[in-house]
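Structure tokens please, single chain.
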Amino acid sequence: MKRVLLASPRGYCAGVERAVDTVERALRLYGEPVYVRKQIVHNSHVVRELEELGAVFVDSVEDVPEGATVVFSAHGVAPGVRSAADARRLTTIDATCPLVTKVHTQARRYADAGYSIVFIGHAGHEEVEGTMGEAPGEMALVESVADAEALELPAEQRLAYITQTTLSVDETREIVDVLKRRFPRIEGPEKEDICYATSNRQWAVKELLDEVELLLVIGSTNSSNSKRLVEVAHTAGVASYLIDDAGDIDPAWIEGVATVGVTSGASAPERLVHDVCDWFRDRGVSDVTEHRSVYEDVVFRVPVELRRAERSAA
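Here you go.
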């Protein structure tokens, strides 16, 4: 083992930064506990750290005491969740990533205009559940090229497609190509819904793969964008593993390997990357090099309702 190459960009995106900052600032403003519906972002380390600060993670707003404060996660919620929160007189802070909110807005716009909507995404993901809740009777979920080939819709129906923000860029393009072939009049967003951070992290990995024999992706198992990074490597024929942290590394993986690539999903803290680098340094690897491809400078402000509450409390 001679070298570690670090993909860049990697790790936290602007939406994750915003969501984590929202919970931390809400705790400072309101005191503990502050409730969070679902995991604020899909990373077990982030969730544990926020729990230590006083955040309480719940599966449903029904689990939040009446009148308490609840933060909606970065993945977004369906309108029914907002109604349920209002019925319990909860103080809500919406940490939905603005890029996910954009997809929700598209879904409502298409539904209001009488379109049937094809939603490209992964069943069970919170972002998918929230988006489909915007137009539950007008949306069909497509997860793969095979689903797109099998989709049956009336020929005369006005159609549009939208996508989950954390998909594989290449696979999504293949699915869209099938939809356009089968339904030539289908409409879609002017700019793809896959977020800049997901696209950039996949591109950074692709640029790295010619120089590495193994890729380690730091991210939790429920992180969609992290799993897509593993898939990008596998598609290119490079061995890759998803690890939650340095403790998951199997020394057998690096036997006979000269160069290892390391990246992290959009919800993984950078300190986990440092820990992985230290794991390699402890085993004699001194060459740890940044492999930069794209510079990111996107910043999202915390939710307006939190900013207003902070100003009122000042």
